[in-house]
Amino acid sequence: MKKVKEEVLYFGKPIKLTDKVSMYQPTLKEIIESGYSLEELIEPFITLDKQNFEEDKDNSELNNFDIFFLQILMGYISVLKNNENVELGDWLNSPLSNGLVIKRLIRVFKFLFRTEDVNLYISKGIADDMNENYIMINKSYKIDRNNYEEVKWMVCDIFDTDMKIEKKPQMSEEEKAINDLFEKKKKAYEKAYGREAREGNNKKMTIFTLVDYIINNKYSQYNYNTIQDLTIYQIKNTFKYYQRQEAYDIEVRYRTSGNFKMDKKSEHWFFDK
Q1: Confidence of residue 268 (pLDDT cuts 50, 70, 90)
Q2: What stretches of the chain adopt beta strand conformation (E)?
Q3: Residue 116 forms beta bridges with which residues?
Q4: Spatial separation of the C-alpha atoms in residues 48 and 96, rounded to whole Å
Q5: Where is pLDDT greater, at 266 or 156?
Q6: 41 has pLDDT over 80
Q7: Which residues contact 44 (CB under 8 A, 6 or more apart)?
Q8: To pair with 76 at 20 to 30 A between CA atoms, which of 69, 122, 147, 214?
Q9: Euclidean distance between CA atoms 66 and 208, whole angstroms
Q10: DSSP 16
Q11: CB 131 within 8 A of CB 147
Q12: Would you state the pLDDT for residue 27?
């Protein structure tokens, strides 16, 4: 279920949270110029997400926001073993704590909220009272364990992703045998045809793959400059409709050729979901 209204996503409008705070939908150009990759903007929301771990009954009372602070606690305890005089604030402000996911999350919030006024507040015991841990945006919007999920899914909407790490399903013995046979044939093919075959099979789909498809599509009205003004949601939505239109045209050619029997009448590409 989307947290952001469809019309806001379609037209790339800011998502107003309060009178003083809005989350912005960055264009492709803004992302490129920021130095971030799309993966880096999404990664902090995925890395410590409970749905991407095995279930742990001991942590059932914790939510995703709490896990950020558990990482802080464990990191600080490790530091104290070597130097018990290190203050929490000093450690958090030093490069030694750059591995903390919450520091990457704060950098992403600064980019999406277009402000440097993003501050972390931690309760005295860190994990003693999780309700006292929060992030403050522009001194007026608090993100804590009660509304973090809503904010996360807003980010999910503007980047049009479900933020899940794909897990390979367990295979039966028969499925494993088939898969092993496929892998053997794949390796034999790659050995016969060399590097190009390997690179073709391993090519990763990125936002720039979609950009290439849109620009080089025969219906496209975009070029390398104009497409940079689109948001990620707009790029993915445009890709979806171009792909649907191309598939429809191929089917029409099959139907009108007389060489294929196709019983099911398809919907027009624009309305076919």
Answers
A1: low
A2: 15-16, 22-23, 118-121, 134-137, 141-143
A3: none
A4: 19
A5: 156
A6: yes
A7: 101, 102, 104, 105, 108
A8: 147
A9: 34
A10: E
A11: no
A12: 98
Q: Which residues, other chains included, contact 182 with Cβ-Cβ below 8 Å and sequence gap of 6+?
A: none
pLDDT grade, residue 219 (50/70/90)?
confident
199: Cβ contacts below 8 Å, ≥ 6 apart: none
Extract the tokens encoding 176: 């494993």
* Residues 227 and 28: beta-carbon distance below 8 Å: yes
Q: What local confidence, expressed as pLDDT, does residue 55 receive?
A: 53
Q: Tell me the three state secondary structure of residue 237.
A: helix
Tokens 């520091």 appear where?
103
- The long-range contacts involving 9-18, CB below 8 angstroms and separated by at least 24 positions, are 9/157, 9/158, 9/231, 9/233, 10/233, 10/234, 10/237, 12/230, 12/231, 12/233, 12/234, 15/154, 15/158, 17/141, 18/140, 18/141
- The Cα–Cα gap between 37 and 48 comes to 19
Q: What are phi and psi of 74, to 5 degrees?
A: -65, -40
Closest among 38, 33, 32, 44 to 104, alpha carbons compared: 44
Tokens for 231, please give them. 């948001």
Per-residue model confidence as pLDDT tens digits over 50-69: 766 555 545 567 889 999 99
pLDDT bucket at 197, cuts 50 / 70 / 90: very low
Domain boundaries, the chain: 6-158, 175-204, 205-273
On the CB side of 27, how many CA atoms lie within 13 Å of its CA?
11
Q: Note whether 155 and 168 are within 8 A (CB).
A: no
Stated pTM of the model:
0.77
